[in-house]
Specification:
It is built from eleven helices and 14 strands. It has about 325 residues and is an alpha+beta fold. Strands 9, 10, 11, 12, 13 and 14 form a six-stranded antiparallel sheet that branches. Strands 5-4-8-6-7 form a five-stranded antiparallel sheet, with helices on both faces. It has a three-stranded parallel sheet with strand order 2-1-3, sandwiched between helices. Strand 4 and strand 5 form a beta hairpin. Helix 1 crosses helix 11 and helix 3 runs antiparallel to helix 4. The chain is globular and about 55 Å long. The chain binds adenosine-5'-diphosphate and magnesium ion. The site of adenosine-5'-diphosphate has 20 residues, from strand 6, strand 8, strand 13 and strand 14.
Length: about 325
């Protein structure tokens, strides 16, 4: 098969995403031919290239358009308009999952637990249920923990107003205020379409986290850099296969992940982020369609753990996508 690797450049990030070479290795090993196509802020060269190359399938790893993650779904929409087949979720799946408030509304409809929340934008308040301190304040349409710091978890009105003000200035978008869920954090990868299966559960271990900071995967914890002594947060988080995790709880987490994936009508693969209270209550924090496929990332490691080595995982995604179009 001829497969186009569609990816985004990130001016702020490293020059080349390691996942590209990893995917190429995996796909070449399975006898596929590949080319790279980059999504920038100019759409014409991309359209010409895709028309010229005419791939059998596009491996869609585009996470933004022109640096805007809110435009992610439009890239998939463009592939639809060009009549191309591609891996991962549809524009509507990407759009809904990319909007945390909308995601939560749909999850609630399906009786999947997600923290209570309110959104506020220029005085317009959209809220459901009761909120009590502490709450976490975040931009509803960003990813990779952009805009999430230790100060995002607030305990009183003054801190809340400050956090909201900061976000509104930075992102010029609505602000999401969400019930803070104290507890453990887990990631569950899922694969499939007609029959969706969950991968082994991974935990974000906070046991070495600085005790004076809220236990969240803040920008500093994820990427190790925000200037203010962030190193300790980065060093203090590690994703692990939890030992001694109650099998019943793990099974319930996997079931919730599959339900959330299906509720949002996602396709092929995704990763669901969960928080679990000491009482064993499971809350969906975020649903990530087309999640990051880097070999050492949570999704690929979980797949490997389930017996799907990296090349087999990538081939499975190609097969899942191709099978959708064959119907
Ligand atoms: N309601 C919440 N309760 C507790 N922690 C939360 C909550 N929402 C987010 N977090 C923490 O913040 C991190 C980033 O939030 P998330 O919504 O996943 O944003 P992103 O899309 O940037 O990953 C989560 O991994 C979790 O550690
Ligand atoms: Mg997340």
């Amino acid at each position: 098969m001829k497969i186009g690797l569609l990816h985004t450049t990130d001016a702020a990030g490293p020059p080349e995403d390691p996942v590209l070479a990893q995917l190429e290795d995996a796909l070449h090993g399975r006898g596929h031919e590949t080319f790279r196509a980059v999504v920038t802020e100019e759409v014409e060269p991309l359209i010409s290239q895709l028309r010229r190359e005419a791939p059998d399938l596009v491996f869609n790893m585009a996470e933004a358009f022109g640096g805007k993650s809110a435009l992610e779904s439009n890239v998939a929409a463009l592939l639809n308009l060009l009549g191309l087949r591609y891996t991962g979720s549809s524009p509507s799946g990407l759009m809904v999952a990319g909007d945390k408030a909308l995601t939560k509304k749909i999850l609630s409809f399906h009786q999947i637990k997600t923290p209570q929340f309110a959104t506020v934008f220029r005085g317009a308040l959209d809220s459901v249920g009761d909120l009590n301190f502490p709450v976490i304040v975040k931009p509803p349409q960003e990813d990779a923990s952009l805009g999430i710091t230790a100060k995002s978890v607030v305990h009183d009105i003054k801190q809340l107003l400050e956090a909201m003000d900061g976000l509104q200035k930075e992102f010029k978008s609505p602000v999401l205020v969400e019930q803070y869920v104290e507890g453990r954090e887990f990631y569950v990868g899922v694969l499939g379409n007609a029959s969706v299966t969950a991968l082994p559960v991974i935990e974000l271990d906070f046991s070495k986290f600085p005790s004076d900071k809220p236990r969240i995967a803040s920008y500093a914890a994820k990427w190790g850099d925000d200037g203010e002594g962030a190193g300790a947060e980065f060093a203090g988080t590690e994703s692990v296969f939890p030992t001694g995790l109650d099998a019943e709880l793990a099974g319930r987490m996997q079931a919730v992940a599959v339900e959330a994936f299906e509720a949002l009508r996602l396709r092929d693969y995704g990763r669901i982020d969960l928080r679990v209270t000491d009482a064993g209550e499971i809350f969906v924090i975020e649903v990530n369609p087309n999640c990051y496929l880097e070999k050492s990332g949570e999704f690929a490691r979980a797949a490997e753990r389930s017996g799907l080595a990296y090349p087999a995982l990538i081939e499975r995604i190609v097969e899942l996508a191709s099978a959708r179009y064959a119907r």
